[in-house]
Amino acid sequence: MTEELEKRDSFTFRNIFSPAHQYSLLGALALLALAYVFEHYANLYELAYSARPTSVAVGDLFLDNLPVVNLNLIIIEGALLSIVLTLLYVLLRPRYLLFTLKALALFIVIRALFISLTHIGIYPGNIGPDEFGVFDGIYTYLNLQVGFFFSGHTGLPFLMALIFWEKKNTRDVFLFLSFVFGIAVLLAHVHYSIDVFAAPFMAYGIFELAKRFFKNDYKLIETAP
User: Which of 30, 51, 148, 181 has the fewest C-beta atoms lying within 10 Å of its C-beta?
Assistant: First the structure.
């Protein structure tokens, strides 16, 4: 499969590690590491703040009328599986790697900033991760269960759809994942409706910022065969 991709696209991992791009790769990895550190401390702050009596649940037109459904198989295992498969997919397309890593780092940092600003209590009856599950533990360790605005489950696949917009099949898969995860987190009551509905708009804004900040990396995508 890799050989077929190389025949269609002359840009390979050799190009990524070439002097022209190796510093960009190191910068992307550094940005991603810093983004995770930033997110980690933002989530710790969010957890501490959520314990205060001022953090109370609020009404939500959708959640008030939707039944609570346990969809952890989609929200946890499905999310982790999609992350792994997406990573493999991008690795098989080195041309997209630099921009995707940097856009992801920007997504993480901006979402961490937003979840640090306004603190609302968890909606009553929501279904969270199982304390003793292996995948639930990984999910919790990655801080995927913390913070409301905006929904990472919905926003991240949408961001990937924008990055791979010219590849119709790939774009449709990511849009479908964004829709499915959005519905799942609403039915499990782990996100407010505004978190889900705002996520695509936030992802689009982040995508446009990434295009401005990382122009050379995005040019690689624009020149894809």
Answer: 51
Going from N- to C-terminal start, the domains of the chain cover: 2-222
Render pLDDT for 45-86 as a digit per residue (tens, 0 to 9): 887 877 777 778 888 999 999 999 999 889 988 989 999 999
d(C-alpha 137, C-alpha 24), whole Å: 33
Give yes or no for a contact between 175 and 82, defined as CB atoms under 8 angstroms apart: no
**Torsion angles phi and psi, residue 224, rounded to 5:** -65, 140
Cβ atoms < 10 Å from Cβ of 163: 24
Tell me how far apart the alpha carbons of residues 110 and 31 are, in angstroms, rounded to a whole number: 13
Which residue in 204, 26, 180, 223 sits closest to 106, CA to CA? 204
